[in-house]
Every structure is written in C-alpha cells, then in structure tokens.
Amino acid sequence: MNETLRSPGPLLCVVGARPNYMKMAPLVRAFGQRSDVPDVVLVHTGQHYDVEMNERLFADLELPAPDLNLEVGSGSHAAQTAEIIRRFEPVLDRILPSCIIVVGDVNSTLACSLVAAKKRTPIVHVEAGLRSFDRDMPEEINRVLTDQMADLLFITERSAADNLAREGIAPSRIRFVGNVMIDSLLHHRRRAVPPVETLAREGVGADFLAGAPGFGVVTLHRPSNVDDPVALRESLSMLRDIADRLPLIWPVHPRARSNIERFGLASLQNGANIALLPPQGYLEMLGFLAGAKLVLTDSGGIQEETTALDVPCLTMRDNTERPVTVLQGTNTLVGRNRSQALACVDEILRTGGKRGRIPELWDGRAAERIADELYAWLGLSNARRVTVLA
Ligand code: UD1
C-alpha cells in the first residue's frame, strides 16, 4: 500500500446577483495571478439575468464570463433557493472542487453553501460575520446560516469576529483580511465614467445640473423600503423634498421600478428634480458615487463604497450590518425619518457633512490576502491524500 497526493480540485466560485460580481472579480484576478493554485471554475446561478444587471457589470469589472450558468431566474425565496439547490448539486458532483467560494448574503450564497455542506465540500465565505440583527431582512438569514456552514470565514471589519464568536464559530476559522468590494473600487476608480457623460447618454439635458450645488445619488431596492406601498410612498415623498435642495440621480432597480408602477405611485415623481435612469454599469455608478455631494441608499455595498470615497451617505434603513461605516466612515442612518434626513442634507450642503476615515485593511489588497490564506489552508487541511493499493 502506498500514498499518493492527488492534485486538488478546482476552486468553484459562485456568483448569483449583482452585488456579488464586484466581490468576486478581485478574487478571480488574484487566484489567476498564482501559478501554484488550482484552476477557477466560475458558476453563475442566474439569480440576476438582465443584461444591465449582468453582462455589463462583468465587462466593467473584467470578470470572465461564467463557465456555467444555472439560469434559475426570479421566484419566491423558497422557489428560487430550491431551484438553485437542485441545479447546483450535479455541478458539484461533476466538478469535485477543493472548496466552493461564496460571497455576500444573497440567496445563491446560502443555497450553494447548503449543497456543499451536505456533501462535505469545504465552504469559504467571503464577507462573513456581518449582522443587522434584523430577521426581516432575507439577507440576515442567509448570512447567519451560511456562516454556520462555512469552514473558512473572511471578514471585512473586526465587529464581524465578535458576531461570529457569539454564534459559536471558532476563531481558528476566521480571518480578518479587509474588503474585496473596496479592492474593486480602488482598482477601477480611474476608469469611472464622468457623470455628465452618463447623463448625456441617458438623454438628461445639461440644464439638469445647471446652477445646482452638486447632485445627490439615490439607490433603493430593499423589500422593507419598496415592497410595502406605505413605505414606498414615504420614501418617494422624502426624496421629493430632498430634490428641492439638490438634484438627485436615481438608477432605479427593477424591484423598485415595478412596485412604483404596481402601487400607482409614479405620479409622485412627476415634476420632481430627480433623473430616473435604468440600472447603470459599474463604471457609471462609480462616477456618480465619486462625484456626488451625498448619497441616499439602502444598499449595503454602497454604504461601504461611500466610506471609501469619503462621500457622505444617508442610509434609508434603521440598522446596518456594516457598523464600521457609521463609527469610522461617512455613513448616517436616517431610515425614513424625513426631518432627520433633511437636516442632514442641509448640514452636508452647508459644511460638506460627516467626514470619516478609511477602515482598517480597506486598502485594495484583500483579495491577495485571501489568496494567501486560502492556499495555506487548502495545503494544510485539504490536499487529498488518498490511499491506493499497490
Ligand atoms: C437581490 C438580493 C439582495 C441584493 C439585490 C441586489 C436576495 C435575497 N436578495 O435582491 O440581497 O441586494 O439582489 O440587486 O438574494 N429582476 C429583474 N431582472 C433581474 C433580476 C431581477 O427584472 O436580472 C426583477 C424580478 O422581477 C425579481 C425582482 O427584480 O422578481 C427582484 O429580484 P431578486 O433577485 O428576487 O431580488 P433583489 O431585490 O434583486
């Protein structure tokens, strides 16, 4: 009987929805720069599928086209998650990866982790440990469950380690490496498209910004803000009031767009100083965020991006899973509190608003650190030593 070392299987990287791509792109780049490592197989679940939510961002981020697309499409949480599970299982059986790498907190992150956990395939979770402590957010459930299953957890801020410790996750499984989303931002910042170019391409006249004290950027897509007619009405009228102070640019997410129509709220946007645009590419969005006087958002990623860009961010939520953006960065939680939001806007227009500092390790090198850690970890614990009969 002798022992041989079988070469490790590929790294199976999973993406599903728009916010995954800017996290995965630097990882795929970092893995590709090392010759001593397994190949990458990139699997897209197809949770997001529109060209403007997908191909355009892949191109902007220089993320290679996926090797496989499971084309699950939209559905209820149960239906979408179940369909991803069903379609991902045979992929895992065929590829036999060293590990799967999942990012963030979307349904694809949880569904693919669940398949891997049952098959005892190691799971690496990038952006682990963030907690809003709000189970009304579907992402919170995805975060908690994915972290319970993950074997190696990469965190973006120190508070995540405390959250994971409270949930009984051994510190030996956790690595603080920084923020891959900020890797993308710093890598592509010089290529950002100037806002005036994007506006002109979208047919917004130059007079939109003429004489204004700059512009604000809006993104809104959380079910808590856009799935409930009362909440959506409140959000829209708050934005109208803010737009009286400075023009707003709003690339509208498909979920928000369809609900504005469904609830008959489109008239609330008439005559408001708001440019409604279709979803934008990564480089166009980066141009908007970097050039904005302020940003109004309910996105998690944009809270981090504005902190990295030192642009004041008013988050239209009552909580955040990214507390470092409030404690150290430029973020302020305003929920749908109109008077608080207006006071913040006035303050920003008067003084420039809250200034922050760049959080620890948000330096553009998180993916390199992850690559280093991952290979050490795979080499120690996962090189497949198999016994064969001579
Ligand atoms: C999902 C993620 C959320 C993430 C967001 C970013 C979950 C639970 N939610 O929410 O964490 O912040 O993506 O966008 O995973 N639609 C299209 N085209 C598409 C995709 C969706 O028109 O390419 C429409 C469909 O009508 C769909 C709706 O948008 O029903 C919502 O899409 P879905 O993926 O279910 O959730 P998001 O709100 O995008």
Q: Biggest sheet, in brief?
A: 7 strands, parallel
Per DSSP, the total helix count is 16
Q: What's the Cα radius of gyration?
A: 22 Å
- In what range is the share of β-strand residues? 15-25%
Question: How many runs of DSSP E, i.e. beta strands?
Answer: 15
Ligands bound to this protein structure: uridine-diphosphate-N-acetylglucosamine
Strand order of the largest sheet: 4-3-2-5-6-7-8
What is the 3D form?
Answer: globular
Structural class: alpha/beta
Fraction of residues in helix: 40-55%
Q: How do the strands and helices of this protein lay out in sequence?
A:
Elements: E1 2-6, E2 11-15, H1 18-32, E3 40-44, H2 55-61, E4 68-69, H3 77-95, E5 99-103, H4 107-118, E6 123-126, H5 138-149, E7 152-155, H6 159-166, E8 174-176, H7 180-188, H8 195-201, E9 216-219, H9 223-226, H10 229-243, E10 248-251, H11 254-262, E11 274-277, H12 282-291, E12 294-297, H13 300-309, E13 313-315, H14 324-327, E14 331-333, H15 338-351, H16 366-381, E15 384-388
Parallel strand pairs: 2-3, 2-5, 3-4, 5-6, 6-7, 7-8, 9-10, 9-12, 10-11, 12-13, 13-14
Antiparallel strand pairs: 1-15
Bound molecules: uridine-diphosphate-N-acetylglucosamine.
